[in-house]
Amino acid sequence: MKNSEKSTPLANSFINIDFAIMKSERIMKKKKDDITKREADVLKLVVKGLGNKEIAKMLFITSHTVKAHLSQIYKKLGVTNRTAAAIKAEEIIRHQDLKRP
Q: How many Å apart are CA 75 and CA 29, to the nearest integer?
């Protein structure tokens, strides 16, 4: 092995740090894009056909909070309205059911 090919402990630590940073960035991105439990609660009720006021009453939150959750759901699912969100949710559920043994 030539001198230029040898890894130094310092070089290895930088490689490990870079790897750890890239891995944590991927984890953070994944978590940011995941639907929260509360957003899932809202989405389940949207799929059932409930309106914002009905969802708010059932979850003990304001209709403004429902709208905020829906806005985040739309972004995370890549849709622009509640109908598309409901369809996408159904597709995800169906896909997950197909994966189960």
A: 14
Q: Shortest CA distance to 47 belongs to which of 98, 100, 93, 78? A: 93
Taking the whole predicted model, whether its pTM rises above 0.70 is answered as no
Taken in order of first residue, the domains within the chain and their CATH numbers are 9-101 (1.10.10.10)
Check: CB of residue 39 under 8 Å from CB of residue 72: yes
pLDDT digits (tens, 9 = 90+) for 53-84: 999 999 999 999 999 999 999 999 999 999 99
Per-residue exposure over 76-97, b if at least 16 CB sit within 10 Å of its own CB, e if not: bbebeebeebbebbeeeeeeee
Distance between CA atoms of residues 78 and 72, nearest Å: 10
